[in-house]
Amino acid sequence: MERVGAPASHNLNTRYLVSFSFILIPMTILGMAEILGLTQIASVMNKQQQKQWSNDAPLPASMAEKKQPYNYDPSPLERYFLDNAKSLDLYNTSGVATCPIVINDTSPVNTEMLHYFDQLQAYNTAVNHFQPIPSDLRTQILPDGSNIEEVCEATKLHPQGLSGIFVNNGISSSSDAGGMEPLLPMMRSTKMCGNYTKPNLMSLDYLIHDFHSICKRLRRHTRTVFVDMGASLAFHNRLDSPAVYINKIYRKFGIHFDHIYAYEITPTKPEDAYAKVPEELMSSFHWINLGVDPTPGAKMNPFTTVVKNFNEDDFVVVKLDIDTPAIEHVLADQLRTDDDILKIVDVFYYEHHVMQTELLADWKASARGGTVGESLDLMSDIRQKGVAAHYWP
Ligand SMILES: *[C@@H]1O[C@H](CO)[C@@H](O)[C@H](O)[C@H]1NC(C)=O
Ligand SMILES: *[C@@H]1O[C@H](CO)[C@@H](O)[C@H](O)[C@H]1NC(C)=O
Ligand SMILES: *[C@@H]1O[C@H](CO)[C@@H](O)[C@H](O)[C@H]1NC(C)=O
Predict the structure, then answer these.
(1) What is the pLDDT of residues 242-272, one digit of tens each?
(2) Distance (Å, whole) CA 263 – CA 324
């Protein structure tokens, strides 16, 4: 479902409306929805009417209060790079050096860029100093969800939320996922510029997560799912594998993953694989030591498992980094275009292997995936369609 201008399908109540509509559409055919006075709800699948509905149609008060059109608002910095992708040479198929574009004294957005980096540093300091939430937030949510504000208060990094750190709309945001880092041509940490070392390349200090917004979408019955495509536990030089890292940072904010599907094609001895899995993940960790199959609907396509087993009330995070552009492009494109997958996936991390000059020597043949500009368009499109897409280093 295209979420622009449509009620947010991540909004729980809209999800219910969508399920109601499956019941009500046949009823409309019988004219029964009319009788029940529910024509507006029955027509929820009709995009044209959705627009009218959000503008002027009367709704029962409880629904009117909760409906909210999905909206993604890129920050001015993100908009600048997207709008000027062509003149900044981001579509150059032989590659583009991204550091001189982002860190550039004469750039018209240089002041904003420097401000943003200061704010990003303040954000990282706040995350590092955050007192971990000791328990799974879901256990504190009442069955009717009425205390969600109270429960989620604990996840705030700043009394004013992220806007207290990123003043003046410094970050991009969506009505579902809240704040997220602006998409930049760099596609990772700026630390790599001028200091090309593994720890800088792999730094995750550019990622912004809005755990308060994530918390507010949780329900007591929400299942939390992390799908890791390209799960090599010996991942680069980082101490933790991505699955372990993601688990740690979310867990610090009270979000515990109870389903982890880790796909890895490189044959790994089970004892080596499990040696790196922390005990706290043993009940949720599924180690699938096989490659993924990008064919839509295939058993070994992780999206098949996600769509068949989880629903819109669940919180689903997908990471894609399989160093094989021919496969990862198909999967990213599937997410971008398949409404059933878009509805269920909440967060997407992607290392997109494109023609970024700084990384070409490391990536070698795996960079044959397109240009930096095309990658920004892809990630921005996925955000517009309701999934919080982040670059993965
Ligand atoms: C693309 O970049 C190369 C250098 O990497 C440069 O020589 C070439 O002129 C650029 N192409 C265009 C169309 O700007
Ligand atoms: C720095 O920004 C200016 C203004 O946008 C641009 O003309 C110049 O090419 C940029 N420098 C580099 C090295 O990209
Ligand atoms: C370069 O990065 C490394 C971390 O990889 C850091 O220890 C070092 O201080 C940095 N050097 C400079 C000149 O910033």
Answers:
(1) 678 888 999 999 999 999 999 999 999 988 8
(2) 14
